[in-house]
Amino acid sequence: MTTIPKPRQPILKTSLPGPKTAAIMERDSKHLSTSYMRPYPFVPDHGEGVWLTDVDGNTMLDFFAGIAVSTTGHAHPHVVKAVQEQITKFAHVCLTDYPQEITTSLAERLIAHVEKPGEKWRAFFGNSGAEAVEAAVKLARNHTGRTHIISTLGSFHGRTYGAITLTGSKTKYKRGFGPLLPGVSHVPYPNPFRPPLGSDAQFCGDAVLDHIKLLFTTVIPADEVAAIIIEPMQGEGGYIIPPMGFLKKLRGLCDQHGILLIFDEVQSGMGRTGKMFSFQQFEEYGGVQPDIITIAKGIASGMPISAMLAKESVMTWPVGSHGSTFGGNPVAAAAAHATLDLLEGVVKHPGCGSDLMTNAAQVGDYILSELRQMQTEFPFLGDVRGKGLFIGMEFVKPDGSPDGKLRDAASMAMFERGLLNLDCGESVIRISPPLTLTREEAQTGLEIMREALRGLGE
Ligand SMILES: Cc1ncc(COP(=O)(O)O)c(C=O)c1O
């Protein structure tokens, strides 16, 4: 089906940025929105698998996959073929008004990954993560007849007005944009490495639950809360995994008060952690089932489509109350099917010898164990954590406080050696490569990291 890119090193033909990159960046800085960030000078030209080549011919190893989006790597032949086939049939009709088999079957496939015996789920399709979150919040309010939504600090849910109100990671996203959506509160996220509310790693989940209970008796009537929205594993906030058992207890609290539980799987879902959805990682600890799930990013290997899945008993909004012109676009849906084929192993990715979820779990375990070794050499790596190919490395000062400056220097040093990476949280680098990453490619990336970190002290 495809030629497998051989494990290789980044190829740096010019100093960075090369002349063509510099010229485009100059034009970009003059004509595009002033809100765009440019963490380092990189202008892609084409990609293959986990490799991206810039306009100057420099080939870089991609350890961030366009923020956890390029699930199957760049230009995967199976995805390309699916897109080409669909676009020659029709590119748009409008799902809000007309059913299309490709989205019907996509809904069925996604739902099959969450439905438990005795349950029925339904799907709504949008174009972006923020739209899936907006849909979830609108549905939760419409279904419960309640207004209040509880979110978490450190969270990221998108940049539309509703989603940005829920987002709790950085004030820069909110400054100057108010007034935001009324009826939204934030509670701490149970971060075992930096336990909130004076708790410790083991009991930080209980401390957060006690805090919510306190809010229910003091400032937020529980019977006015429509939903609690949470990332089962927090992305933008620092790639944080909550303590085992926390989500199940949160589910219990929601049930006690008739509150819907929304899991935002936009970043952590679609096989990235080694299971289809990150909340399914907690199954061996009694499991937890949300009422609503939001999905985007990795769903279609870069084509824009998102989904909001909800239990049938919850999806009660009336005909015509919500929709989208482009949402559930058939070409993007074709890419989502092809992505699912590779995630589920219906179609084998030649480089892995297994389905991509299993590959993510195995290669992720390898990277984590190597990073833990690296911690002994580099004491400023305060924490390495993650599941599958959802991995964070946190940089700390000698007193244990976050070292954002060192993280920034490390990120740039890795880029200069040909490793595309991205920050998150206060002092974390996230490792979120395509799920096609082989062990050999992972090793190449780890060697670059080691070299970059060694260079930091010089
Ligand atoms: C957990 C989570 N939810 C929602 C979003 C918003 O997605 P989008 O940028 O596609 O609107 C993001 C984006 O980073 C995210 O990480």
TrEMBL record:
The keyword Isomerase does not apply. InterPro entries: Aminotrans_3, Aminotrans_3_PPA_site, Class-III_PLP-dep_AT, PyrdxlP-dep_Trfase, PyrdxlP-dep_Trfase_major, PyrdxlP-dep_Trfase_small. The keyword rRNA-binding does not apply. It comes from Deinococcus puniceus. Its EC number is 2.6.1.19. Keywords: Aminotransferase, Pyridoxal phosphate, Transferase. The lineage of its organism: Bacteria, Thermotogati, Deinococcota, Deinococci, Deinococcales. It is an enzyme of class 2 (transferase). PROSITE patterns: AA_TRANSFER_CLASS_3. This is 4-aminobutyrate aminotransferase.
